[in-house]
Design goal:
The complex is a heterodimer of chains A (297) and B (437). With 297 residues, chain A is of the alpha+beta class. Helices cover 24% and strands 35% of the residues of chain A. Chain A starts with a strand and ends with a strand. Chain B has 437 residues and is α+β, with helices and mostly antiparallel strands. In chain B, β11 and β12 form a beta hairpin. In chain B, α3 packs across α14. Chain B is globular. The longest helix of chain B has 20 residues. Chain B starts with 15 loop residues before the first strand and ends with a strand. Classes of the chains: A alpha+beta (297), B alpha+beta (437). At the A-B interface, α2 of A face α1 of B.
């Protein structure tokens, strides 16, 4: 696989704009390209974290202001490199309107904000989904050739069916009964704007009711990665250095919202064996996300 | 020995030992820690202590700490910090508040619990942020808001709101003024400094020594096992290793300006507003031995005192002057029995006024009830690793800084005693004796 070296982490707004251009050109030419993912990895070497941005992120997420990077911050920091792969002209799915389905992350060691970070991102595993086509975006973050963090973000291009990629039949939705909550999140109408400021993800569906409606949403919705970052921080026992987590996003969270949250820790002999979590709308009782965190040695 | 013949805290109970300490570098307010809260900074200092002594997941007997400038949401500050730290969540914690003596009083409380056999291990600490200070709504606005929350009908709500005056909208920021006198701490000290005729030169010399001593301590790596870097800071940001008497002499007076030519207190010989946090790990001898941890020093005894500064009888920051002779008498000690003196440098004038008072026959007789002067302090034994003028003074964090540094200094020497003296707002002070191990 070829590696493309980028001089810096790309800015998300620019990527969105170029994606609009790509989408328009492809619409005009009637050509969506192939059913194959680009055989390329995008790389940024020696990226450094701005401590002010880290602090702002920690404040918005109500995290302790520590020198180690929260797992969700690493995603927010590095994911634009994966986005630049998705914004390529030869990427087979349209970047705009993609739905974030799932994240799995291995956080292999504490990452101090002063470390110089190398980021590598690529796409793999293009496959069918009952509602379209899905793809895995892989991001690896390392320092001095040691892999520290590896994330796999699964995205769905709704309504896009590519030739040669099998359609998957719909499964029956499992029934969800909210468990007893261990916490309640009160998410204000402005939480999308606050998270956009610190993550750089200014997707209009998160910002205001009006900008969300333009894109066909009933109201603005919370960032999936806001919820992932916050739940991983709250549910990981302090002092755990290496861990893995995964989260699946279900119904979108229209803002403002009160979420019931359940965190279930598996402790045996005082040892932590993992934690599962879920969150749901207190009124509609629909589940918004669920997932787990597990120790890694 | 006290005349009552009661056992002294230093003798009849088991020892409480200082195992070690950890702090984050202190930052001048508005600097590296501007957007870090008290909780954040104390967590950083505590996690560093936990990492240094391998306390991950351990249940500690108690954690006591506090902050002077505290948000109402931080009513359970220390417990919240423990929950966010790598300590076991089964570790109980409580908050302490005694103005600038908070940190030392937290050490004394934990040490006493250990001495009495109530706990085997404990952590004392303190934190303060002058950058992230709480701002409250005015009294008038607060009453209106509370009435509004109790109002049920629209007319009751309107009535509550009608009491709001435009002037109520101005917020209340905390100040360093004494509630009963309206004078700032610096203005109070300026009165004491002038009373004891402490010269500008003497104050600047003390400030210079503080910077030189702190810089030397950094140079020889003294703080390597006492500090965890935070937010990119690896040294106290107030430290000016290259300062000189000439530079200090150029600064204009900031306190006691009504004294005219006698105004001597500048930004150079007064501590700046500072952000930071410190922690100290204490334990019984058994605890230290069983966990293979070092024993740096014993907490021998402590004494608190308070003075009436409101009616002009004594200077605001002179309470330690009263506490020290009482503690020395109880332990049968004199200044000659000490190898190190850690006198918190709230202002250079505070340290110099205290020393001069102890050297004054008349004062010691009439005010302290002694037969004559308490004694002199050898300057080469004073604040040997720098003090607050150089390091800065995040109010509640200063006690932990001093105790950890002094315990290490005593342990390096291997023998001897150290005296700690910390003055505090409200005319209070806490002093303590540490003994090398």
């Amino acid at each position: 696989m070829k590696t493309v070296d980028l001089t810096e982490i790309p800015a998300l707004p620019k990527l969105y704009v170029s994606a609009v251009g790509t989408a328009a050109r492809q619409k005009l030419s009637g050509n969506r390209g192939s059913s194959a993912l680009p055989e390329v990895r995008h790389s940024v070497k020696g990226a450094s974290v701005d401590v002010g941005r880290l602090t702002a992120f920690q404040n918005v997420l109500r995290m302790p202001v520590k020198d180690d990077l929260p797992s969700g911050f690493v995603h927010a920091f590095a994911f634009p490199v994966a986005m630049s792969v998705m914004a390529r002209e030869d990427f087979p799915l349209p970047l705009l309107g993609m739905v974030h389905l799932r994240n799995t992350v291995e956080h292999l060691a504490p990452i101090d904000f002063r470390q110089s970070l190398d980021i590598l991102a690529w796409a793999e595993n293009l496959r069918g989904h009952r509602a379209g086509t899905q793809v895995d975006m892989i991001v690896e973050v390392s320092s001095n050739a040691e892999l520290l963090w590896r994330g796999n973000s699964t995205y769905l291009a709704k309504g896009v069916f590519l030739p040669g990629i099998d359609e998957v039949t719909a499964r029956d939705k499992e029934q969800f009964e909210p468990p007893a909550p261990t916490a309640r999140w009160r998410l204000g109408a402005g939480i999308g704007r606050e998270y956009a400021q610190v993550s750089g993800d200014f997707n209009p569906i998160h910002l205001t009711a009006l900008s969300a409606k333009v894109l066909g949403m009933r109201q603005q919705i919370a960032h999936g990665m806001y919820m992932a970052s916050r739940i991983v921080q709250e549910a990981t026992p302090p002092g755990v250095d290496a861990f893995a987590w995964e989260i699946s996003f279900e119904a979108p969270v229209y803002l403002p919202a009160n979420l019931g949250v359940a965190i279930d820790e598996n402790l045996d002999d005082g040892q932590w064996h993992g934690t599962t979590f879920s969150a749901w709308n207190e009124k509609s009782r629909r589940r918004h996300f669920h997932g787990s965190i597990s120790p890694r040695s | 020995m006290a005349s009552s013949g009661n056992p002294t805290p230093g003798q009849q109970v088991r020892q409480a030992v200082v195992i070690g300490g950890n702090r984050i570098p202190f930052a001048r307010s508005g600097g590296a820690y501007t957007y870090s809260s008290n909780q954040d900074m104390l967590t950083a200092a505590l996690d560093g202590l936990v990492a240094r002594f391998g306390l991950q997941g351990e249940r500690i007997g108690a954690v006591a700490a506090g902050a002077v400038l505290k948000h109402s949401r931080d009513f359970n500050l220390t417990r919240e910090v423990v929950l966010g730290s790598a300590l076991s969540a089964h570790t109980p914690a409580y908050d302490v508040q005694q103005a600038c003596a908070t940190g030392l009083e937290a050490v004394v409380g934990i040490a006493n619990k250990i001495k009495l056999g109530m706990i085997e291990s404990g952590i004392a600490g303190g934190v303060d942020s002058a950058s992230d200070a709480p701002i409250a709504v005015s009294e008038g606005f607060r009453r209106v808001l509370l009435d509004l929350s109790r109002a049920k009908t629209t007319s009751q709500k309107l009535k509550a709101l009608s009491k709001l005056r435009p002037s109520d909208l101005a917020p209340n920021a905390p100040g360093t003024g004494e509630p009963r006198t309206g004078l700032s701490m610096g203005e109070h000290q300026a009165l004491t400094t002038a009373h004891w005729e402490i010269t500008r030169q003497a104050q600047d010399e003390l400030a210079l020594a503080s910077h030189k001593n702190l810089a030397n301590a950094y140079e020889r790596g003294f703080f390597d096992d006492l500090m965890t870097p935070y937010r990119g800071l690896t040294r106290d940001s107030n430290l000016r290793a290259d300062t000189s008497l000439e530079k200090l002499a150029k600064l204009k007076p900031v306190f006691g300006k009504n004294l005219g030519d006698n105004a001597t207190m500048t930004a150079g010989n007064s501590t700046p507003l500072t952000d930071g946090a410190s922690t100290v790990l204490l334990g019984s001898e058994d605890y230290a031995l069983q966990h293979d941890l070092p024993m740096l020093a014993n907490i021998v005894d402590a004494e608190a005192a308070a003075v009436d500064f409101v009616h002009g009888g004594e200077g605001l920051l002179m309470a330690p002057v009263y506490a020290v002779p009482r503690m020395l008498e109880r332990n049968g000690l004199t200044f000659d029995d000490f190898d190190y003196f850690e006198i918190h440098e709230a202002f250079a004038g505070t340290v110099l006024s205290s020393i001069k008072a102890w050297e004054n026959d008349d004062f010691c007789r009439t005010r302290l009830g002694l037969d004559g002067a308490l004694g002199s302090i050898d300057r080469t034994k004073l604040n040997v690793n720098g003090s607050s003028l150089a390091a800065g003074h995040p109010f509640a964090a200063t006690g932990g800084r001093i105790v950890a540094s002094l315990a290490k200094t005593l342990h390096e020497k291997g023998t001897g005693r150290g005296l700690v003296s910390v003055c505090a707002a409200g005319g209070q002070g806490v002093v303590a004796i540490l003994e090398a191990r």
